[in-house]
Amino acid sequence: MTERTEHAWLEHTAAYALGALDEQERTSFEAHLETCDICRVEVRELREVAGLLATAAAHAPPPPGLRERILSDARGVRPLSAGSIAAGKESAAPISTGPISAGTISPNGQSAIPIARAASTLRDRRGDAVAKRPFGIVPWLVAIAASIAAVALGLQSRGERNARAAVEQALASARATMDSTRVTLARRDSLIASLVAPDVEAVSVSGAGPSPSAKYFLDRRAGRIVIAASSLPPAANGRTYQLWGIETGRPPVSLGTFNTDSSGRVLTSLPIPSGLRIAVTAVTDEPSGGSPQPTTTPFLAATWKSE
Amino acid sequence: MPTHPAGVQSPDSALVARVASGDDRALGELYDRYGGMAFSLACAIVGERADAEEVVADAFAQIWRSAAGFDPGRGSVAAWVATIARTRALDLVRSRRRRARVLEEAAVVTDEGETLVLAPSLEAPDRSAELTDASAIVRRSLAELPQPQRRVIELAYFGGLSQSEIAAQLSEPLGTVKTRMRAGMEKLRQALRPVLEAGA
């Protein structure tokens, strides 16, 4: 079981950020994204790259009336429209949670509140027109009361939707966490089994001074060897550590590659090819992916009693 | 198009929070910052200005309704606006059973392989000003990609095609399309790192 540094899902990140994954790949990749920080970070950055592509479009000045059209459309979908709320329509309109000023009320033709329509000659320019017009305060109070009711209704339905979405999301993420925990636990169980099995042989090796040290646990019956190394700096870029098992009078056999973390430690369990009667184990520094035979001087060498 | 709001303006995310609270002046400010980008993008995808106007109006209506759902953890406001505008534009193209402009190959690719839906990479007469302009850097980075890589990225982003649709469109193996897309996006990411970092 060698440590894999490559991450096959990363092949999908660029296409996903461009929205170009085919349906099936997209579905499975999105499920993976839920559980993978590496891919999420990648996707976030590549989405920004894709977003910048928008700025490469030939510059086309928008028509002058578009801004006002967007703003007046927006005023039309305020939650003031009691009709749409009473009818139980999905009201995703932003809801003002701040103090309700006259300016946030925008009576227009779409309002289902007659009294508000009566006030519709007051265009909603931040309410500064109110004082200048000969309308009494009563229509405004009614409109405000209606809008408070609408806000309450809107908040409730939006709150429920948000709560359900949050629960679903939490559930999905809990499931994913459980799955990955299960895998981690299974790995750990097998590691512990290799450490405590009755006929496991253990050897400690260390060099002089602050040089690397290691403990090996050899479980011949299960065909596994565990290496726990410390003070071993991570292999350089493009390099890896490789563990070798040597049978007396034969060339070394690769037991797999590994690397240490930034604190110079590793704890990993590697399978032993069946039939290999290990007499010596040792580590070498090799190019990424490992070598068929050692190419550098072995270290952390341990000798094992013959079977 | 103001890709780098000056310090005196509120940050994009604060602006979106105001939009989410129902402040239409904030929506106006957001339009002032990104409406031009959205409109240019819509034109590049749908072709007709009148259609692009519908797209941008729809996009900002959606922004208005769904601003509360904006999650800064998932990306910048600019990328969010661009995503919404692009999705709306591609929806419109599909609903009319038309093809995105970038797919009308004969109409949009010049003899030099320059795609006309995109601005020419060397359009700014003043090169020193160009260097500071994010969109010029984006255009130049795109222009510097090998043409086959550039084409698959354009077909995906401006044409809304999936990888297998691109493979069919170009009569290339799917694996080739995937490799080009990944390599091209990786190069773009490297080239655009300064812009991405400035925006972050």
Helix-strand blueprint:
The complex is a heterodimer of chains A (307) and B (200).
Chain A: H1 13-17, H2 23-33, H3 37-53, H4 66-76, H5 82-86, H6 114-118, H7 138-196, E1 201-206, E2 213-219, E3 224-230, E4 239-246, E5 253-258, E6 266-271, E7 280-287, E8 299-303
Antiparallel strand pairs in A: 1-2, 2-3, 3-6, 4-5, 4-7, 7-8
Chain B: H1 12-20, H2 24-46, H3 49-66, H4 77-95, H5 105-108, H6 127-131, H7 134-144, H8 147-157, H9 163-170, H10 174-199
Helix pairs in contact in B: 1-2, 2-3, 2-4, 3-4, 7-10, 8-10, 9-10
**Alpha-beta content class of chain A:** alpha+beta
So what's the overall shape of chain A?
elongated
Please list the strands of the largest sheet of chain A in the order they lie side by side. Answer: 1-2-3-6
**Morphology call of chain B:** globular
Count of helix runs of chain A? 7
Segments of chain B where pLDDT lies below 50 for 5+ residues? 1-8, 105-114, 121-132
Q: What percentage of residues of chain B falls in helices of 4 or more residues?
A: 55-70%
Number of helices of chain B: 10
How many strand elements of chain B? 0
- Rounded radius of gyration of chain B (Å): 17 Å
Broad structural category of chain B: mainly alpha
The most extensive interface, with participating residues per chain, is: A-B, 50 and 75 residues
Helix content of chain A: 25-40%
Give a brief description.
The complex is a heterodimer of chains A (307) and B (200). Chain A is of the alpha+beta class and 307 residues long.
